[in-house]
């Protein structure tokens, strides 16, 4: 079984990404604010202005911070005022409002960078299409991305491989009514629960709307019409609530998939040191010397080194380690190269 791991670099490396045509690129943690300020759509300008001002309030003018640093600062500041008490400059309600605006800014940036020409679901990626075409039933995907690029590619090109009713690893409940909206994400030819590709969205998704144990898969994940866009994600804080609610089940299934994997393909995910939860998942779940191949798709040598370090338990003397700098290069290779 092959397990594919997708990070922000997988979306950034999509075939449609061209700064000459659309200067707002799918954001990375490091350049989120640069992409945010390239949003041209007038309906998002109020959000852009407010988030920039919120960040200036926290870090001062000419700030140089990542999205994760801002979320973590908001999180820790909120925890601190629970201990020391509120003052005129920092109130819990103000911090909550800043966090909500930042989450809306994520959605706005993804809509601007993915939905060229006002498309409902986003521009199609040739490389993601080839990725889905090379996948086999029972393969699995772990993604840390909030966007729905891989979901939409599975819908369009995953016929006979993908069934979203079962593939997300969600609890359907006794009456199987806990998940609604999955038909909109189902390809023309579905597949059984036992054979579907699995897609574990560890940090949630812009098309997830979670209420208790019930999950709605939204038909229009990016489109903001009246009021704020509603969705369920785990923001990049230092304390990620992956062990609560529906996410506990998703992370459990992801761990099981890692344990079964014989081929591990990591695309655009850098195993950041600050993401200790995800690193722990890989370290404890990969079976000892179980990997026949490890494929790393990332131009960053340090990121590739961290990947090998995190999954080293699964590496043996016969494990093949293959490196690609770009998603386009990996998409052009046949699966037989690494399987």
Task: Give me the secondary-structure topology.
Layout: E1 2-6, H1 8-12, H2 32-36, H3 45-59, H4 67-84, H5 92-114, H6 126-134, E2 140-143, H7 149-157, H8 164-167, E3 179-180, E4 198-201, E5 204-205, E6 208-211, E7 214-217, E8 232-233, H9 245-260, E9 263-267, H10 276-285, E10 293-297, H11 301-310, E11 320-324, H12 327-332
Parallel strand pairs: 1-2, 1-9, 2-4, 3-7, 9-10, 10-11
Antiparallel strand pairs: 5-8, 6-7
List its salient traits.
three-stranded mixed beta sheet; globular; Rossmann fold; 2 domains; alpha/beta; single chain; six-stranded parallel beta sheet
User: What helical percentage do the residues reach?
Assistant: 25-40%
Mean pLDDT: 93
Number of helices: 12
Shape: globular
C-alpha end-to-end distance:
10 Å
List low-confidence stretches.
none
Q: Per CATH, what is the topology of the largest domain? A: Rossmann fold
Largest sheet: 6 strands, parallel
- The CATH architecture designation of the largest domain is 3-Layer(aba) Sandwich
């Amino acid at each position: 079984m092959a397990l594919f791991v997708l990070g922000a670099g997988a979306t950034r490396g999509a075939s449609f990404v061209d700064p000459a045509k659309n200067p707002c690129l799918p954001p990375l943690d490091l350049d989120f604010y640069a992409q945010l300020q390239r949003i041209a759509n007038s309906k998002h300008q109020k959000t852009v202005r407010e988030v920039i001002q919120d960040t200036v309030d926290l870090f001062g003018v000419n700030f140089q911070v990542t999205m994760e640093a801002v979320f973590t600062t908001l999180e820790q500041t909120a925890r601190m005022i629970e201990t020391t008490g509120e003052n005129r400059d920092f109130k819990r309600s103000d911090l909550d409002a800043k966090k909500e605006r930042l989450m809306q800014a994520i959605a706005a940036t993804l809509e601007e960078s993915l939905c060229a020409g006002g498309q409902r679901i986003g521009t199609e990626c040739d490389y993601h299409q080839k990725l889905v075409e090379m996948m086999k039933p029972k393969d699995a995907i772990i993604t840390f991305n909030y966007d729905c690029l891989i979901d939409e590619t599975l819908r369009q090109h995953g016929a006979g491989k993908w069934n979203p009713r079962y593939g997300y690893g969600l609890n359907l409940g006794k009456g199987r009514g806990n998940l609604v909206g999955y038909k909109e994400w189902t390809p023309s030819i579905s597949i059984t629960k036992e054979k579907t590709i699995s897609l574990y969205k560890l940090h949630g998704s812009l098309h997830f709307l979670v209420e208790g144990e019930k999950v709605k898969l939204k038909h229009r994940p990016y489109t903001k019409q009246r009021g704020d866009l509603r969705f369920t994600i785990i923001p990049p804080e230092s304390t990620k609530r992956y062990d609560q609610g529906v996410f506990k089940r998703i992370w459990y299934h992801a761990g099981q998939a890692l344990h079964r994997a014989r081929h591990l393909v990591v695309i655009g995910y850098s195993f950041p040191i600050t993401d200790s939860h995800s690193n722990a998942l890989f370290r404890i779940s990969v079976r000892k010397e179980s990997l026949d191949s490890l494929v790393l798709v990332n131009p960053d040598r340090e990121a590739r080194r961290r990947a090998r370090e995190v999954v080293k338990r699964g590496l043996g003397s016969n494990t093949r380690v293959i490196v690609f700098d770009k998603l386009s290069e990996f998409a052009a290779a046949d699966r037989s190269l690494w399987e």
